[in-house]
Amino acid sequence: MTELSRPGKGERLRAWLRATRLVRKALATPIDPLLQQPPSARIVLGLGLLVASYLLGWPAIALLGVIAAWLRRPAWLLGGPVLYGISWVVFGVGLVLIGSKSLRTGRAFGWLLLRRFAERFLRP
Length: 124
Prior knowledge:
There is one protein chain. By secondary structure, this protein is mostly helical. The chain has a domain at 40-99. The chain is 73% helix and 0% strand. It has helices at residues 9-19, 21-28, 41-56, 58-71, 79-98, 101-121. The protein is elongated and about 65 Å long.
């Protein structure tokens, strides 16, 4: 066998991934019609609140710590736990707005992402 005819490591990995049950199922699963329509305003607001909760969590606490050190006001550090609690409340409200429909949508979106990856990068 010559060097040119032997499959490379990348091709063997792609062939192995194509043969896995997960990739075969993703390629065989039709795209959910739920993903072919734009999300409702409630879903968008819920996702926005989830993102806001992550920004209110540790990044805001770190920024509050920097500001408290810069202004030499250690009492401001007491706002950290308050911000952290607020971030959890915002996260919960976001989850309530998204609702149980998000599980189905998330699963369908995961299958779609895997399908697109397989179609683009795992072609024979």
